[in-house]
Specification:
The chain has 11 helices and 18 strands. It is an alpha+beta fold and about 425 residues long. The protein folds into 2 domains: about 100 residues, Serine-tRNA synthetase, tRNA binding domain (Helix Hairpins); about 300 residues, Bira Bifunctional Protein, Domain 2 (BirA Bifunctional Protein, domain 2, 2-Layer Sandwich), CATH 3.30.930.10. A hairpin with a 4-residue loop joins strand 12 and strand 13. The model has no long low-confidence stretch (mean pLDDT about 95).
Length: about 425
């Protein structure tokens, strides 16, 4: 959430800054609601003060055995006016809150201008895409040859955009996840977290998936509706919701492996085949929660931690700075890691590493105690995939294939595969 003080003082300037995203903010409409809120709050205080004075007069009249009927009528009328005024005030506050929750984050000045992914800026590249002396297959064809990737059975069980993995391919994904967790825990000093897969609406409001992106979520109806998490970012970041964190405990660095669930609303016809865009997928998520002055460095370190996995796996990739029109709703700045997929002859996103500033913390009321000022201030949050396991699996299958349709196991994963060095096609 954007700081309400900034909105109240500079709504027109906020509207101008949000234009970079292609987002239209009705600053005049917001200012009118704010003026209405102020006048209603002033009136509310005046009415309550009037009631207090009348109540005191009733007490004085009672002590003198005077008639209090007219004073009681005044208080009754004031109470009616307070009830009407508070109803209008609450309705106005709800409208203002709805607008504020619907506003995306303000962008960092470093974010390149642009409309869509075509305008994203390549920051750096690592490795060179391998030149095969045969036509490389995509992961679907290889999975079929290995008899280890079954979309047909998954379709009968669950519907489209689900997959069944079997045998050594399933083991390879598990090996990938274990390798990523061990690297982040042992080398990068993240604390492993086992997190809930079902969360309440307030947790998703805190990390800005709700209310704007409800159609992308799987919802379980009930007395208290629950949602399947779209990413472990939600429970991990909400570990500090409503808390004041001791400065000495910062930074907080969390890592979790979870399944993730997304309805992929609006993506019909896009990546409908294969493992790239599934309703259920595995991910290792990285979250850092830091003091504001450390947040940019934290973004760079978290991004480098995700890069380390790709380098260890010897997978070619590029780092891309997302432009203003392509960046996520809550992010101030985002670096995407895009891995090379020979089967598609293209780089594809495998991790998005984003700095949110105090956008999420403000929604969650997550603060830290600043020892210099003695005040409670909002934290900054950073997150990114380290990595998306399904897409990493796709990258390994396609980059490590041989002419016979076998998959060579990357060196760093062999210990996690009980020494298996090659997954052979049947």
């Amino acid at each position: 959430m954007i700081d309400p003080k900034i909105l109240r003082q500079s709504a027109s300037e906020v509207a101008r800054m949000l234009e970079r995203r292609g987002f239209e903010f009705d600053a005049d409409g917001y200012n009118k609601l704010e003026s209405k809120r102020k006048s209603l709050q002033i009136k509310n205080e005046e009415l309550k003060n009037q009631r207090n004075i009348s109540s005191k007069n009733i007490g004085i009249a009672k002590s003198k055995n005077e008639d209090i009927l007219s004073l009681m009528q005044i208080v009754e009328e004031v109470n009616k006016n307070i009830k009407v005024n508070e109803k209008q005030l609450n309705e106005t506050l709800a409208k203002i809150n709805s607008i504020e929750l619907d506003l995306p984050n303000l962008l960092s000045e470093e974010v390149p201008d642009g409309v869509d992914e075509q305008d994203n800026l390549i920051v750096s590249t690592y490795g060179t895409p391998k030149k095969f002396d045969f036509k490389p297959l995509d992961h679907i064809e290889i999975g079929n040859r290995l008899d280890s990737l079954d979309f047909e059975s998954a379709g009968r069980i669950s519907g489209s955009r689900f997959a069944v993995m079997k045998g050594s391919l399933a083991s390879l994904q598990r090996a990938l996840i274990q390798f990523m967790l061990n690297t982040h825990i042992q080398e990068h000093e993240y604390e492993e977290v086992y997190a809930p897969l079902l969360v309440q609406a307030n947790a998703l409001i805190g990390t800005s998936q709700l209310p704007k992106f409800e159609s992308d979520l799987f919802k379980i109806e009930g007395d208290k509706p629950l949602y399947l998490i779209p990413t472990a970012e939600v429970p991990l970041t909400n570990l500090v919701a409503g808390k004041v964190i001791d400065e000495r405990a910062l930074p907080l660095k969390y890592v979790a492996h979870t399944p993730c669930f997304r309805s992929e609303a609006g993506s019909y016809g896009k990546d409908t085949k294969g493992l790239i865009r599934q309703h259920q997928f595995e991910k290792v998520e990285l979250v850092q929660i830091v003091k504001p002055e450390e947040s940019k460095d934290a973004l760079m370190s978290l991004t480098s931690h995700a890069e380390k996995i790709l380098r260890e796996l010897k997978l070619p990739y590029q780092v891309v700075s997302l432009c203003a029109g392509d960046i996520g709703f809550g992010a101030k700045i985002t670096y995407d890691l895009e891995v090379w997929l020979p089967g598609q002859d293209a780089y594809r996103e495998i991790s998005s590493c984003s700095l949110f500033g105090d956008f999420q913390a403000r929604r969650m009321q997550a603060k830290w105690k600043n020892s210099k000022t003695g005040k409670n201030e909002f934290l900054h949050t950073i997150n990114g995939s380290g990595l998306a396991a399904g897409r990493a699996l796709v990258a390994i299958i396609e980059n490590y294939q041989d002419e016979s349709g076998n998959v060579i196991v990357p060196d760093v994963l062999i210990p996690y595969m009980n020494g298996l060095k090659i997954i052979k096609s049947s």
